[in-house]
Every structure is written in structure tokens, then in C-alpha cells.
Amino acid sequence: MVLERYISDLLYRYNCVVVPGFGGFLSQYKSAVHNTQDHSFSPPSKSLSFNKQLSSNDGLLVSYMAEVENRSYEEMLQQVMGTVEAWKRTLDQGGRLSLEHIGDLKSNKEGRILFQPSYQLNHLTSSFGLSSFVSTPIAREVMKKEIVALEEKVPLVFTPERRKETNLRSYLKYAAVILLALSTGLTGYRFYNETLSQQQIVVEQAQEKVAKSIQEATFFDTSPLELPTLNLKVVSKKPTVGIHHIVAGAFRYKANADKKIRLLKRRGFDAGYLGTNNHGLHMVTYSSYSDVDEALQNLRTIKNTQSQDAWLLSIR
């Protein structure tokens, strides 16, 4: 019997799991973390801690183990107490107690138990599938100082001597530019007039073709068309049987789900295995129904006589 596995299973649903005669493991919500040193991001999680003072048996751990193992409460309590005695001997001898997916415990010189939580498993179900990752930092370049330094080193392009130069060659350049612009404008104006005339001719020809087509389309056959007869065959679909399931629980290990099915069948239920949900947990049902009213009536009976945790899953 691996006691820490049952503790880990209960930490998914509860914030406190007490080991009788040993202490309580507590979980608290922890927001996402951004480490600015290594640029890593961690998703939201549950931070674990240990309190030696919470050693009174609240029945949660032992009842859960008895249900999974299909044994009596007293038998499972004795096994838990035997495991606790072995844990205490390990700590009293100065050894380190390592609990899988929970953390490590060690006793110091003053007799206090030091707890180092494990970060291998995230017990927060809403963060299922999320893992830590490292993002490459963005390098931002600051160019202001470099631009100022560059402007101080750029020489002036025009000197006073160059600005005073005026000769006949400069005037001839300006005159050539003006003549070129005038000749280009006259040629463009002539080309524009010729293009406009051609466009008017094309528009008139198109209008004549449209008018002729309208006259020809005036005479057409107004007799109704005979459409073929289309026969449709309607097939009624029968409702699917067994779409309303009364769920007894979801288990992390398939072996525990099989034990639950055998237990329910011995109690007279038509129990079955429904498959795994989005969290990878194996789902077990009391029974399945095609009538929703019948399913709800049996759900109320099961809640009153078997378990308040039963619920209805409808699949369409």
C-alpha cells in the first residue's frame, strides 16, 4: 500500500488531507509566476505545506482508501497507523522521508519536521496540461544617443563660397527644364483629346448594341415549363439508447475504476466503464438510461441511499 498516492489523489479535490497520528498536508492557490532572472513562466498551481499539529483523524483519507481498496474502515485504519509508525521511525533516526509527488520531510535538532514540497506534479485541476516554459527576452535598441553623436559629426554640405556661385550655365539648365515641361504638356493635351474622342465612339457603339438586344428580347415564349416530380422518402431516426449516465466517480488509475465497478455490481447496479474525461480520469457509472425522467428519479434515489457525490451526465 502506497499511502502517498492516496494523499496526492485527494489533494486534487481538497485543500487539507490529514494523515491520522502524523500531520496534515495543506494546499493553497498560487498565481502564475514570471521569473525575471531566467525569463521563465510558471502556470497557476497549488503550493503544498505540512502542519504537524493537524493529526486528528477526520476520516477523509481512511474512508477514501477503504472505498478504493474495497476493504473495511477498521482494516484500512490499522494499515495507515502501521505506515505512520514506519514514517516516524525514519524521521526519529535522522533519515529523510520522500513522498512521491508531495515532497520530502526531515526532522531537525529541535525535533521539528521540515517539509520541502515537490514541484513535479501540479495539483490544480484548472491548470491541467500547462507546463513551465522559458521565453527569449526581447532586445530593445536605444538609438537616441547614437543619433545625437552622429549629427555632431556630419559636415555641412553647402559652404558660403558654393552658395555665391552664379553663372550662365545654371540659367541655361533652368531654361532647358522649362522648355521640356512646355513641350510635354502640349503633347499630353493632344493625346488626351484623341483618347476622349475614341472613348465617346466606343460608348455610342455599345449603346446601339444594347438597344438592339432589348428589341430582340421583346419576343419570348411565355408558356410555363413542366418541372419533373420529385419524391422524397422521410426516414425517422430512433433515439439513441443509454444517453443519460449516472456517474459514480472518476479515478486516476484504471485498476481503482475496475474495483469500483465490481463493488457496484455486487450492490445490484448495472455499473459500467464510461471512458476517460478531459483530465485523464477513468469514469464509472451506476447505470445508463434513455429516458431522462427515469434517470433523474434513479439519481435522487442513489443520492439518498448511496452517495451524495453522484451526478448525471447526458450525451447527445
Task: Describe the structure concisely.
With 316 residues, the chain is an alpha+beta fold. Helix content is 41%, strand content 21%.
Secondary structure: elements and pairs:
Layout: H1 3-11, E1 16-19, E2 23-30, E3 33-35, E4 40-42, E5 45-51, H2 60-69, H3 73-92, E6 97-99, E7 103-107, E8 113-117, E9 133-134, H4 144-153, H5 160-163, H6 168-216, E10 244-251, H7 254-266, E11 272-276, E12 282-289, H8 292-305, E13 311-314
Supply the helix-strand structural class.
Answer: alpha+beta
Average residue pLDDT: 77
Strand arrangement across the biggest beta sheet: 11-12-10-13
Give the termini separation: 40 Å
Q: Sheet with the most strands?
A: 4 strands, antiparallel
Q: Could you tell me the radius of gyration in angstroms? A: 43 Å
Q: Uncertain segments of ≥5 residues (pLDDT<50)? A: 156-161, 214-225, 230-241
- Helical percent range? 40-55%
What overall geometry do the principal axes of the alpha carbons give? flat
Helical segment count: 8
Order of helices and strands: HEEEEEHHEEEEHHHEHEEHE
Please indicate the percent range of residues in DSSP E strands (runs of 2 or more): 15-25%
Q: How many DSSP-defined strands? A: 13
How would you characterize the overall build of this protein?
With 316 residues, this protein is an alpha+beta fold. Among the domains are: 3-133, no CATH class; 244-314, Alpha-Beta Plaits, CATH 3.30.70.1070. Helices cover 41% and strands 21% of the residues. The chain is built from 8 helices and 13 strands. The strands form 4 sheets. A 4-stranded antiparallel β-sheet has the order 11-12-10-13. The chain is flat, with a radius of gyration of 43 Å. The two termini are 40 Å apart. The model is unreliable at 156-161, 214-225 and 230-241 (pLDDT under 50).
